[in-house]
Fold this sequence. Notes:
The chain is mainly β. The chain is 12% helix and 36% strand. It is built from one helix and four strands. The longest helix has 12 residues, at 62-73.
Amino acid sequence: MQAVIRDNFKVVAIKRVNYTDIFKDGTGDRFYKARVSFMALEEGTGREMKVVNNMLILAESVEDANVKLALGLKDLGINYEVVGITESSIVDVYVYE
């Protein structure tokens, strides 16, 4: 982070979030949160259940986020539904290694 920070910097909070995927490739100046639902088989019973995942997308607009999401999920091989895409308050994402 030192390459990004040029002045006094203080972390006031760190929050754990549950995003199943982050699409940070390409251009964009905002992060958008997408809620995606699909049907999955429950391991124990074999019954179908609805699964909802939250994903984060770096994009220029909601429409751009939708396009990038579709490109990112095209190889998933299952039917999914985009429940909603909203602008996030997240400024940047740093992966913890």
